């Protein structure tokens, strides 16, 4: 998006009582290119905030020497039969900026599909913001409808695992900026 402003300015004649413009007004055109919408920042505090207080496990945030970081978390729910769970893995190359994530949904009953679908959708919104082209993301995930889409600087892929119809993976990746691409070896 480009925002254009037109600034009108004039010079006042010194010594005039009313300070009205005596010279023709100058018009300046100023243009500003709005940077693409960035995803919200993600840091250790956000990693810790995704904890489900109804379970005993807590998210783990680790940082390597080169500044790369990872947030992982496994939420297991008690249910008879197939045990539903949600595994979360979020990675970043720079502090506060995620580069990829994986959400592994292990569905149990139809109710667990709704709960896990809503929880996964909330995590996606936390990472990329709520301005996504998908409406009712939670229902789409719960229904097991596969998807692949790219918008802004984000790519989302949702796929069923080959061996189990109750397990799905939601992958998200963010396009790296030019400065990161310049550091990548060819």
Automatic annotation (TrEMBL):
It comes from the Bacteria. It holds the Pfam family DUF6030. InterPro entries: DUF6030 (IPR046071). This is DUF6030 family protein.
């Amino acid at each position: 998006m480009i925002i254009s402003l037109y600034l009108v300015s004039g010079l006042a004649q010194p010594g005039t009582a009313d300070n009205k413009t005596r010279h023709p007004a100058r018009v300046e055109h100023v243009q500003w290119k709005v940077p693409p919408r960035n995803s919200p920042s993600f840091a250790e505090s956000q990693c810790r905030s995704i904890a489900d207080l109804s379970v005993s496990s807590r998210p783990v945030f680790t940082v390597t020497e080169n500044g790369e970081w990872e947030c992982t978390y496994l939420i297991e729910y008690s249910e008879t039969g197939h045990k539903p769970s949600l595994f979360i893995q979020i990675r970043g190359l720079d502090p506060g900026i995620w580069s990829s994530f994986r959400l592994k949904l292990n569905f149990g009953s139809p109710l667990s599909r709704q709960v896990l679908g809503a929880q996964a959708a909330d995590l996606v919104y936390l990472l990329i913001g709520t301005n996504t082209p998908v409406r009712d993301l939670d229902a789409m995930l719960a229904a097991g409808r596969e998807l692949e889409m790219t918008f802004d600087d984000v790519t989302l892929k949702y796929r069923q695992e080959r061996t189990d119809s109750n397990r799905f993976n939601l992958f998200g990746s963010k396009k790296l900026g030019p400065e990161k691409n310049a550091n990548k070896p060819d």
